[in-house]
Specification:
By secondary structure, this protein is an alpha/beta fold. It has 3 domains: 283 residues, Ribonuclease Z/Hydroxyacylglutathione hydrolase-like (Metallo-beta-lactamase, Chain A, 4-Layer Sandwich), CATH 3.60.15; 153 residues, Rossmann fold (3-Layer(aba) Sandwich), CATH 3.40.50; 101 residues, Roll (Ubiquitin-like (UB roll)). Strands 7-6-5-3-2-1-20-21 form an 8-stranded mixed β-sheet. The protein is globular, with a radius of gyration of 29 Å.
Length: 581
Amino acid sequence: MARNLPHRRRNGTSDFDREKLSFIPLGGLGEIGKNMYILEYDDEIIVIDSGLKFPDSELPGIDYIVPDISYLEANRDKILAILITHGHEDHTGGLPYVLPRLNVPLYGTQLTLGLIRNKLQDDLPGFRPDMHEIRAGDIIKIGSFTIRFIAVAHSIPDGVALSIETPLGRVVHTGDFKLDSTPVDGRVTDYGAFAEEGDKGVMLLCSDSTNAERKGFTPSERIISGTLDTLFRTYRTKRIIISSFASNVHRIQQVADVAARFNRKIAFLGRSMLRNADLARDTGYLKIDSKMIIQIEEIWKYSDNQLVIITTGSQGEPFSGLVTMSRGENKAIDLGEHDVVFLLASVIPGNEKLVNNTINRLFAQGCEVVYEKDRQIHVSGHASSEELKIMLNLTRPQYFVPVHGEYKHLVRHSQLAQEVGILPRNIFLMVNGDILTFTRNNPPKKHGHVQAGAVIVDGNAAGSIKSEVLKERREIAEDGVLVVAVAVDERGNLLAPAAIETQGVFISEDSRDIFNELYAVSEQAVAELSGRRANPEALRKTIKTRVRDVLRKRNSSFAVVLPVVSVKSRDSNNVFEKEFF
């Protein structure tokens, strides 16, 4: 499991004199999601996490966003491993994009690797990564790095923090955590291990900042059981439908426990929910009596008060189980007044509109919907301010970098660090791509920057977030598209009347007059350029300008105009060479 690389000499100077350790975030700073961090010592790199984040309304049609790994691709030969702290998408979702490009060993706990395998089955069915399973408490050596995996409580089982001993000092990365004294699975954050690392001396602490603005302590996940018990009693006669993240095994366990007390059967709906539930049961992280589980196709055999359906869709995902039900498109389930829906998740920023639309459709179907925050239907998995101060006191770092959060969270976390005695000059507020460098005889410095933007993923395609495609999508989404098709001969003469089609364009009541004018200006443009060798590009531009002028003058429309020019081929009377758009 350990990999050891020899130290090198360059130009007669020993590595001891030249050695440096760099911490470089590629994602996760100034944002919620796409977490990815680099530790680089000499010619060795380890990567911590490889996440995604979901797009907002400014990125129509985009599936998700992952870190730009140009720096890692340029230094592929130096990368020893990717270490994954836990199985949430904001820490693992970038792997289908990253692993084929880097193809380096992957380290994680049993459940985390199982969730990753499930994801890769869908996205990269033929790809077999080099996976190494570890457990909390393990200590492994990879090159110059000695890594201790420390148990932490979070909203998913099997999460770990990392204590990484390097030749220049110890780095502790908390991953996502909270100090839950009564976790559902009994696996508490290992205070003792963090204190031990603090006693050894922590040079740099990188700590979860998500809830730095929240005062006090984050409530225990276990309080959800009480909420569920109350809701089950309140809606004793109704069929209960619960929507949650497919990876939230603790939440599913609590639903199963309450369902057992009320003698209800459980049916899972949604491919990721089914797959993750099977994985969690097979690995012992989810304990449900098999007699309680039925197939979704069998629910007709049971009365409403005997059923609980657990599904995906808490974020309004378009093809999730809850959303298809809300649209009346699910073959197995027809919703009505006999149903109550619980949304057991907080809304990810950017998904508010999708979730709100789903809730409205559920109400329109006649369902009762429970989603209000004051019903205690969701508990955060991240440490609040007092817990963050405890972590700082346990580890007592010499230097501190707040990670995992929007910039305001990072600032608040840095203020908490100052409250417990860390000097402001020893706290570094960073942005993605910044380089924080440690050397043996000098204080660390933040200097330099690597490429660390974002890559948008749309289906199997990936590209720069600055792509013109996004601008075109926004324009089409806002104003619709109008296509003008003309066919001309080699000398640019019109061969048939122009054709016009629209999608999503609002045309006023005098549409016939407007379309007649659009046909006229299109054919006039062809006539003006005819009589010489056909120039499709010039014709396209002229048609686009004339049609836009009519739309804006007559209809106040800014629709996207796409001319299609077809030129008759010299060699055949039936074949056209086309110039699109």
